Write the structure tokens for this entry.
Amino acid sequence: MQLSEEDLVARGKLRSVYKFPNNEELLLKLAEVEDGVETQTGLRGYLKRHYPYARYRNMFCEMEHETKIQMHAMLKGVRSPIAPTRGMVSSQKNLGLLVKQVSQKDGSIGLTLDELFAQDMFDEKALTALNEFAQLFFKLGIVAGDVHAKNIVWGDLEGELTPFLVDGYSDKNFIPLKTYIPWVRYRKLHKCFAQMAKKIGCEWVRSERVFKKIDDEQA
Ligand SMILES: Nc1ncnc2c1ncn2[C@@H]1O[C@H](COP(=O)(O)OP(=O)(O)OP(=O)(O)O)[C@@H](O)[C@H]1O
Ligand SMILES: [Mg+2]
């Protein structure tokens, strides 16, 4: 599959996000091809040379975690707050992770939480939706170590503006403590939500697990 630079949506530190050719509903996340693996020393270098899986481990962990969360969500009768993954696809550059694009009603790509906030669209309804979204992390056992306003994208779900996590989830540690010990997982979530709250004019109330607007508090 051929990707063109015109299809580039975002370029992060470690990977780039492209529109998937001929399908408006999908995006492809491509890790940069790593140079120097042949001469890399230590355990990491050894594993990457001898086990092809090691180079794609991050992507695989994300796909696996997202799939498990969908299963939990189905069994609990709630929605999954993570943008659905659609498997791996090879392109001329590298193997990539295919994901469903979080889209607005008109089909255009959704706004991130920081864009929504900057455009004065973070109203009471959006706050309620964000709190429902946050509750799902605790209910479904989501491991997320990098939840911030740029990794949350708002899209249309049955006519409602709804947030989805698009990045920064899954347990990539060799010993997956966050997967098995809830308080370790919760500690990180509280930290991420508290940091994020400051960027969107809120505070994270840990005991209630909710975001509250700061001006409402003071009124
Ligand atoms: N499923 C999606 N639907 C809509 N937009 C998305 C989706 N996934 C990613 N994006 C957009 O692409 C941007 C970058 O995506 P992502 O955070 O996954 O890439 P990244 O390279 O890991 O970035 P970084 O390492 O800098 O966090 C997001 O901030 C968002 O604007
Ligand atoms: Mg990101």
Q: What stands out?
A: Residues 5-218 form a domain with the Transferase(Phosphotransferase); domain 1 fold (CATH 1.10.510).
